[in-house]
Amino acid sequence: MTSAEELLPATAKGRATRDRIVDAAADLMLAHGVQGATNPEIRAAAKVSGSQLSLYFPDKESLVRAVLARRGDQVIDLLHTTAHGDLDSIAALRSWAAFYTERPNSWEGGCRFGSLAGDVLKSDLNLTADVTDGFDRWHAVFESGLTTMRERGDLRADAQPATLATILLAAFQGGMLLAQAQHSIDPLATALEGAIDFVASFGPRD
Amino acid sequence: MTSAEELLPATAKGRATRDRIVDAAADLMLAHGVQGATNPEIRAAAKVSGSQLSLYFPDKESLVRAVLARRGDQVIDLLHTTAHGDLDSIAALRSWAAFYTERPNSWEGGCRFGSLAGDVLKSDLNLTADVTDGFDRWHAVFESGLTTMRERGDLRADAQPATLATILLAAFQGGMLLAQAQHSIDPLATALEGAIDFVASFGPRD
């Protein structure tokens, strides 16, 4: 966390400008990768001047950090929206998965956060901690829901929430990459169904 | 497949030069991404001139295509090497997984093929079919082994080899991305163990 990132604009207009830059950069980075999103394109898409861009984001690192944080927030919001609350039941997990698998083009661009994360990890930007933080927040939502399920008796005592959370998150990221390669949502659907079935296999024995 | 890609050098020396270029490009692309690997860097690393580079690879697409094919071959070789043969038993799958999980730094750079694939899918290069082909070949090795297991009775009749192959491949790709983010092999180990346990759950009922 640099001090540059914490310089949030004092006025509503300033915040709106900053938001517009982050949104434009996020879209361009999703489409063309972190390195493929150039300042002139970002300025044009956000309708800001070069001096406005450098006022809020003095360097690429500060901009990518803001995009990662935005995407991380959106992913967490979407988890709860698609699951209609917490991810604390098999039905909620299936509802989350269905959001993607029932929209045949949802593979386009890949995972809003994971795709960007892969790029950042390969770049020279010093943002690994920001990527880790994003995945950790996502993992925590799964782990919290799975812990509730175990406490409630929906999962047996030998179910390990942290382990199962990693399995769900990996299935999503890997399935999304395969879906992008195949131009089909099928691999993601298969990977998520497998992971959720695995979680369900820790349900109470008959 | 362009005609350029099929122009393999006629002489052993030419083939060695071409190989050196592909290896150098593959390493640079793994470290810095497809867009981050520049021609001057590739020429320097492969110790070739600009005219040699453009003789074998007239454009970036032809070079990335060759790198994808090379990485795809290496992944298939490594599958068989690490499993000591075909991936047609739970022990063979665990042996393949152990190759990664017992080497604590094997997350560095991510999956040799998958990391490159993610980059290519985000680029303007017309190479989606090459990425699909690489994952398909990988998937086929898993599917073939799982089919043998089912025929042998190691898996029940309701086990679906194609589905389980996708689950294994997704767990590997997603686990590797999370391992890169955490600078730890643990998420990959967890994802692979979960996927292999899921496959094993289709074993004959007691």
From TrEMBL, chains A, B:
Keyword Membrane included in the entry's annotation: no
DNA-binding region listed in the record: 38-57
Keyword Transcription: yes
Transmembrane segments: none
Pfam family, one: TetR_C_13
Keywords: DNA-binding, Transcription, Transcription regulation
PROSITE patterns reported in the protein's UniProt record: HTH_TETR_2
Domain HTH tetR-type: 15-75
Protein name stated in the entry: TetR/AcrR family transcriptional regulator
Lineage of source species: Bacteria, Bacillati, Actinomycetota, Actinomycetes, Micrococcales
